[in-house]
Each structure stands twice: as structure tokens, then as C-alpha cells.
Amino acid sequence: KAIEKAMNNEPSIDYLLDNQEELVHKYYQRALDAKK
Prior knowledge:
- The protein is mainly α.
- The chain has one domain (2-35).
- The protein has helices spanning 2-9, 13-35.
- The chain is elongated.
- The chain starts with a helix and ends with a helix.
- The mean pLDDT is 80.
């Protein structure tokens, strides 16, 4: 949900920096799942 809101609302740089590790992890996990 958070990522959907983030993409729709174009969050601030501060938000991205605060959540960078979590966001990267989720995108990375999604990419891995897509390759299966």
C-alpha cells in the first residue's frame, strides 16, 4: 500500500531516503518473483 501511495503521490526526497532500504528490498523481491 505504501509503495502505491508513494508512486501516485510522488513522495518527497526525504520520504524516499527514509524508506529507501525497504522500497529497494520490495522492488528487488518483486523482480526476483517475476523471474521465477
